[in-house]
Each structure stands twice: as structure tokens, then as C-alpha cells.
Write the C-alpha cells for this entry.
Amino acid sequence: MKKSLRLRSALLSLALFLAFLAVWQVATQSPGAAASQAGMTAEQIEYQKMLGKDPGQVKAAGFPTPAEIGATAWKHLSNPFYDNGPNDKGIAIQLAWSLGRVALGFLLACLVAVPLGFVIGMSPLLQKAFDPFIQVLKPISPLAWMPLALYTIKDSSTSGIFVIFICSVWPMLLNTAFGVASVKREWLAVASTLEVKPLRRAFRVILPAAAPTILTGMRISMGIAWLVIVAAEMLVGGTGIGYFVWNEWNNLSLTNVIFAILVIGVVGMLLDMAFAGLQRKVTYVE
């Protein structure tokens, strides 16, 4: 039954994708030269050419076609590691810079959010004490921290890592605290009855029980981090997939912009799938 559902959903997704490509192709294809010259005599065509208006010339539509996007994708993917200077690097190099910043900022957030959330979740007093600060800082847009980061850190790349850190902390912190606080009292009572030491109880009882919720927070944080790094790199420039998008827009290369958007979406999907796989591995059935 599950295999049949997966097969049908895959076929439906493929049909929707092909229909989207067909609509895109029809909407962006340019009129042919014959249509441009329809109803015009040879003298009229010659006169238009003298005025610098060649009616036989096929003008490109403003929005690129799927075929043009495919050609652009092949050009980038066939040589993804070239480096011709600051503003001309391969897509793999740009992605590596972005993923490196995301990984470092995300790792720092894990080192802060998970232990702190663990402690907060185990103490109702700390939950109430930290809650006002969390509720004030959590809604602030990560990009709002960028000017302050640039002023204090004075390095654009490090500022981008700080922005990733600050946006990744809150989902992990809240989900960790919630997961720890939601551990069944019966399990803790059994651990107390067996006189399990606090540190052993934390790692052998509380952590496995809260792991699915903690991974959910990490998954949400990674999605937010990948969103934010693209916007941050547009602001600070230099390297990264966000800077690539902005630089290609300045070069008026819409095909490269659309290709980069597709790459961002695919990478984001792969990151989410990786965390979803980890989440399934730690999820238990009661």
C-alpha cells in the first residue's frame, strides 16, 4: 500500500512538473521571424531595415525559456570549480562558502542552545526566568542584527556567521527545553527509584526521550539558517550563493539568477532531508 502511494505521488509530481515546464515554454517563447514579416511587402521590409528595425530579427523574450535555463545549468555544472577572480567563481565554490558559513554558525548555535535548553527544560524556575528574554529576542529578524555585527565585528564573513548563529539558536533552544520538560514523569520516577545519578539520568533517560524534539528544532534552525545566509550574503557581498545571485542580477543575467534560485532550493531540500533522516533514526515508538 505504501509503495503504491509513493509511486502514485511520484507520477503526480512528475506530471505537475512537466505541465509547469510546458506552461513556462509557451509563456516565454518568442514569435518567429515569419510572424514579424507577415503582411509586409519587400519594399516595406527594406524600408524598415533602413530605419534600423529589422522585422526578420527574432527578439528574445524578457523571461528565459526552460531550454535557456537548461543550457545555463549545464554550463555551470560542467565546470563548477573555476576561479577567475573575485566576481567570477564557479557555482561549487560559491556553495562551499555559503555552506561553510552555515555549518559554522549552526554548530556554534548547537553548542549554546542544546546545553542551555537542557538546563532550562529541567528547571521550572529557569524557564520562567529566561522566558521574557527569549520572547523579546526571538521575533527579531536575523538581518536586523547585521548592522550591529558589522559595526562590532568589522568583518563581513564573520558577521554572516554571527547572523546564522543568532537565527539558529532560538528554535533549537525552545525545542530542546520543551523536549526535556516533556519527558514522562514515570520514567524519571523509575530512574530515581533505581538511584540513577543525575548525569547518567540526563544522558540515558532524558536525552533519548527528548532527542526527536531536539532534532526537530535543529531541522527548523537549519532551514532558517539557509534562508538567512542567502540574504546576508546579498548585503555583505564577497562570496557565497547569495552574492552570486545579486552579482548576476547586477549583470542583468536573469538565466543565472534563476539557475541560482533552483540551486538554493535543491540544496535546502537536501539539507532538510538529511535532518529528517536523522530525526527518524532517533524517533521511538511507545
